[in-house]
Specification:
CATH topology of the largest domain: Quinone Oxidoreductase, Chain A, domain 1
Largest sheet: 7 strands, mixed
CATH class of the largest domain: Alpha Beta
Bound molecules: nicotinamide-adenine-dinucleotide, zinc ion
GO molecular function: adenyl nucleotide binding; anion binding; oxidoreductase activity, acting on the CH-OH group of donors, NAD or NADP as acceptor; zinc ion binding
Number of domains: 2
Radius of gyration: 20 Å
Shape: globular
Strand content: 15-25%
CATH architecture of the largest domain: Alpha-Beta Complex
Structural class: alpha/beta
Number of strands: 17
Keywords: Metal-binding, NAD, Oxidoreductase, Zinc
Family: Belongs to the zinc-containing alcohol dehydrogenase family.
Helix content: 25-40%
Protein name: Glutathione-independent formaldehyde dehydrogenase
Number of helices: 13
Cofactor: Zn(2+)
C-alpha cells in the first residue's frame, strides 16, 4: 500500500510499504478514508524530535473496518470508525481512570502510545491506505455510516478533543474569560470549545491573519495579532484587566514576538526566533491571580534543535515565582481523546457543533509532500489539511 514516510528533516515521501496485518485477535484493519496532518507531525518533520527516517506518519485516522480479529466483539466489517490518536489498552490503571493518553501497557517503559509518532510505540501511522488498530473494541469509535460529516468526524481523532481538553485543563467555567495562545488547529478548536462551553470573552493570539480571522468568524473571539505589540498588554487593554483562564496551544516551538520581522509575511517557525517559554510566561502574566492554565501545546524532554543547552533538555526559563505569587494552577499533557470523542461526535450528529470550518484542504495522499511544506510554512490559508488515499 501507499503511505507517507518520513525521510529526514523537511522531507516526506509517498512510498510503497507492507500492508498491515492482524497481529492479535483484538485487532482490526481499517481502510482509511481520511487522515489529517497535525501540528504535532511538524515537530518530527522539522527534525525537532528523535524521530528517525522510515516512520509512517499519521495519528488522526478514520475509515471503514475491512478485517476483524477473532476476539473483537463490537465491530464488523463495513463499520465506519474514527480512532483516537492515542493507542491505549483500556484496562491499565491510567486507562481505567480515564487517562487513556497515559496508557502503561501499549508502549512499555512509557506512559502513552500513538500511531505514527516518535517514542509512542510500534504503531505505524494512518497517512496510508490501511491501518492496524490494536485493542480495537476500545480504540475505534463507531460513526454513522456513509460520508456525512467526514471532515468534522475526522477531527475527532485529535484536534477537536484536544482543543476541548485545553479548556478542561484550564477548568473553564461558563461566563469566564479566556486567552488562547496559538490559532493553529488546536488553538482554534480550544476557542471553539470555549464558545460552546459559554465563555464570556475569548481572546485568540497568533500572527497569521487567516487563522485569526477564522477565530473571529467561528468562535466569536477577539483576535490579538502579536505583530502589533505585546499580546498580554493588548489583552489587558481590551478586556480591562487579566482574564480568568488561559490555554497554551503553541508549545515549545513558540515564536518570540520580539524577534519577528514585521516587514515580511513569513510565518514559518525559525529556531533563531524561538523562545520555548514565551507562551507559558505570557499566560502567567495574563491570567488573573488564582486562575488556571491549560497546556495542551507540546513540550519535550529532549529537543535536538533547541535554541540553548537548557532547552535541549526540556528545561525552560519559566517565571515560577510569579506563578506561585499569583496562586495559579495548571494542567498539562496529551489529550485523553476517549474522555471526549463520543460526546463531541454526538454534538456533531445533533448539529450542536460542527468543527469542519477549520479544514482548509482535502487532498489526495500523493499531495502530502507539498502539503507538509505549505502547512509547515504556516502559509496563509493553510489551516488544516486532510489526506485521502
Ligand atoms: N496535548 C495534545 O494531545 C496535543 C494534540 C495535538 C497537538 N498538540 C500540540 O498543540 C500545538 C499546536 O498544534 P497545531 O496543530 O495547532 O499546530 P500549529 O503549529 O499549526 O499552530 C501553532 C500556532 O501557534 C502560533 N504561534 C507561534 N508562536 C506563538 C506565540 N508566541 N504566541 C501565539 N501564537 C504563536 C503559530 O503561528 C501557529 O499558528 C503543537 O505543539 C502540537 O504538538 C498537542
Ligand atoms: Zn494530531
Ligand atoms: Zn492502558
Amino acid at each position: 500500500m501507499k503511505a507517507v514516510v518520513y525521510q529526514g528533516p523537511y522531507e516526506v515521501a509517498v512510498e510503497e510499504v507492507e500492508d498491515p496485518e492482524l497481529k492479535h485477535p483484538n485487532d482490526v484493519i481499517v481502510d482509511i478514508t481520511t487522515s489529517c496532518i497535525c501540528g504535532s507531525d511538524l515537530h518530527m518533520y522539522e527534525g525537532r524530535t528523535a524521530a528517525e527516517e522510515g516512520i509512517v506518519f499519521g495519528h488522526e485516522n478514520m475509515g471503514v473496518v475491512s478485517e476483524v480479529g477473532e476476539a473483537v466483539s463490537t465491530l464488523e466489517e463495513g463499520d465506519r470508525v474514527v480512532m483516537p490518536f492515542n493507542v491505549s489498552c483500556g484496562f491499565c490503571q491510567n486507562c481505567e481512570e480515564g487517562f487513556t493518553g497515559f496508557c502503561t501497557n501499549v508502549n512499555p517503559g512509557f506512559a502513552g502510545g500513538a500511531y505514527g509518532y516518535v517514542a509512542m510505540g510500534p504503531y505505524p501511522g494512518g497517512q496510508a491506505e490501511k491501518l492496524r488498530v490494536p485493542y480495537a473494541d476500545h480504540n475505534a469509535l463507531k460513526l454513522p455510516e456513509g460520508r456525512e460529516h467526514e471532515d468534522a468526524f475526522a477531527l475527532l481523532a485529535d484536534i477537536f478533543p484536544t482543543g476541548w481538553h485545553g479548556t478542561r485543563l484550564a477548568d473553564l467555567q461558563p461566563g469566564e474569560s479566556v486567552a488562547v495562545f496559538g490559532a493553529g488547529p488546536v488553538g482554534l478548536m480550544a476557542a471553539y470549545s470555549a464558545k460552546i462551553q459559554g465563555a464570556s470573552e475569548i481572546y485568540v493570539v497568533d500572527q497569521v491573519p487567516s487563522r485569526l480571522e477564522m477565530a473571529e468568524e467561528n468562535c466569536d473571539a477577539h483576535a490579538i495579532d502579536f505583530r502589533e505589540g505585546d499580546p498580554v498588554e493588548q489583552i489587558i487593554d481590551a478586556h480591562g484587566g487579566m482574564v480568568d483562564k488561559g490555554v497554551d496551544a503553541v508549545g515549545y516551538q513558540a515564536t518570540d514576538p520580539a524577534d519577528v520581522d514585521t516587514d515580511t509575511e513569513d510565518y514559518a517557525y525559525d529556531p533563531a526566533k524561538e523562545n520555548p517559554a514565551i507562551v507559558l510566561n505570557n499566560l502567567i502574566r495574563v491570567v488573573r491571580p488564582t486562575g488556571q492554565l491549560g497546556i495542551p501545546g507540546l513540550y519535550v524532554p529532549e529537543d535536538p534543535g533547541a535554541p540553548d543547552d537548557m532547552a535541549a533538555q526540556g528545561r525552560l526559563g519559566i517565571d515560577f515565582g510569579k506563578f506561585f505569587e499569583k496562586g495559579l494552577k495548571c494542567g498539562t499533557g496529551q489529550c485523553n481523546v476517549k474522555q471526549y470523542n463520543r460526546y463531541l461526535r454526538d454534538m456533531i450528529i445533533e448539529g450542536r457543533a460542527d468543527p469542519s470550518w477549520v479544514v482548509s484542504h482535502r487532498v489526495s495522499l500523493e499531495e502530502a509532500p507539498e502539503m507538509y511544506e505549505a502547512f509547515d510554512a504556516r502559509e496563509e490559508g493553510v489551516t488544516k489539511v486532510l489526506l485521502e488515499p
